[in-house]
Amino acid sequence: MIQVVGHKNPDSDSICSALVAAELLKARGLEAKAVRQGELNRETQHILAQAGVDQPEMCTGVAGEKVWLVDYSDLAQAPDDIADAEIVGIVDHHRLGDVMTVNPLEAWIWPVGCTCTIMFNLFKMENTEVTRELATLMMSAILSDTVGFASPTCTQKDKDAVAELAPLAGVEDLDLFIKELLIAKTDIQGLSAAQLVDKDLKAYPFNDRDVVVGQIELATLEQVDSMIDELNADLQRRCDEEGLAMAALMLTDITTSTTRLLYKGEWNAILDQFAENDFLMMENTLSRKKQGWPWLQKVLA
């Protein structure tokens, strides 16, 4: 049995690509199942409801198992016992992380906007049927990760994939589909500060220390105005409890591509030079992968 697992604090691409990759492996005649490393956010719940697909079961451990990693290749984002598993496959659209394997593996790492874009192309390459359910999962993940094609991570391959997937998913009004998806993506009502930070939090090893960078995609920055103190306190708590050099949180207005960066930790002073009135504003910054984290790496180096 191959366990297909996305990263910790799963986003929609992490969940959808795990479900889709498991079906591709089954089509090859292999035993596979998708698992998850956390609770589904509201957007992902919306997507699975649209597709009529059940959520993956919770990952309880991968020791002694064969594993496919989807949507990451950093060990910090993998199951805690990944060192005792055999990684046999990776599908990802991020930088190559620190994964090391004993045996050769199947690896597909493309510079595109979404892991599901790669998955769709693998289905095409292998002449494997794309059902309505799978088409809905892949198209939704692509539109989520590219923020409806607005993200700088979006490529022509992502747009081409959606153009082919929409009729397979039975979607005639793509604009309406995107609108409903983004409404679900930016729904944070009733979530606590800790839940918001956990919503899309990724860990990165950097300069022999650990850093976490989260992102909350919003319809307007005003949605979190009343929670700034609580969010800062939660970031500081993580630094204190986990020994992090920095915990940062991108508050991103997806309508204006403006990001307000919150940050706490030992490396605060490095970023203070870019802040004004206790705010670090990042204009034209929509993507953590291509804009936020690369900028932080350059400044913190």
Automatic annotation (TrEMBL):
It catalyses: diphosphate + H2O = 2 phosphate + H(+). InterPro entries: DDH_dom (IPR001667), DHH_sf (IPR038763), DHHA2 (IPR004097), DHHA2_dom_sf (IPR038222). The keyword Metal-binding applies. The keyword Oxidoreductase does not apply. One of its GO terms (cellular component) is cytoplasm. Residues 178-300 form the DHHA2 domain. Keywords: Hydrolase, Manganese, Metal-binding. One of its GO terms (molecular function) is inorganic diphosphate phosphatase activity. It comes from the Bacteria. Its cofactor is Mn(2+). Its EC number is 3.6.1.1. This is inorganic diphosphatase. It comes from Photobacterium chitinilyticum.
